[in-house]
Design brief:
109 residues; mainly alpha; disordered C terminus; membrane
Length: 109
C-alpha cells in the first residue's frame, strides 16, 4: 500500500463564491477521494433503481393476478357456478391469497 504525503499548505482550500456548493466541495477533493465519491454515488443510484424496479414489478404482478382472478370468477358466475363452488375451487387450487379462505366462514353472514 502506497501512502502519499499530504501537501502541507498554509493557505486555506480554494473557495470560489461564484461557484456552486458542489463545485466548491469537489474542488477540495483529491483524485482518490473523487473516485470514491463517484463510486459511492453510482452504488446509491443503482440501489435505488433496483428497489424501484422490484417494487414496481411486484405491484404490476399483483394487479395482473387479481385482475385475472376477478375475470375468472366472473366467467364462472356466467357459466352458472354457485358462489360456494367458486370458493371451493379457488381454495383447492391455493389461490385464495393471504387472509382469505380460512376466515370466510367465521365472520357474520
Amino acid at each position: 500500500m502506497f501512502l502519499l504525503p499530504l501537501a502541507q499548505s498554509s493557505e486555506p482550500p480554494h473557495f470560489d463564491p461564484q461557484a456552486s456548493w458542489l463545485q466548491n466541495l469537489l474542488g477540495q477533493l483529491n483524485g482518490s477521494d473523487l473516485v470514491a465519491v463517484v463510486l459511492l454515488s453510482i452504488l446509491c443510484v443503482t440501489g435505488v433503481a433496483i428497489v424501484i424496479t422490484v417494487v414496481s414489478t411486484l405491484t404490476i404482478k399483483t394487479i395482473h393476478r387479481r385482475s385475472a382472478e376477478t375475470q375468472l370468477k366472473r366467467e364462472m358466475l356466467d357459466r352458472g357456478f354457485s358462489v360456494d363452488e367458486i370458493v371451493k375451487l379457488i381454495e383447492a387450487t391455493g389461490h385464495a391469497g393471504p387472509g382469505k379462505g380460512a376466515e370466510r366462514g367465521s365472520g357474520p353472514q
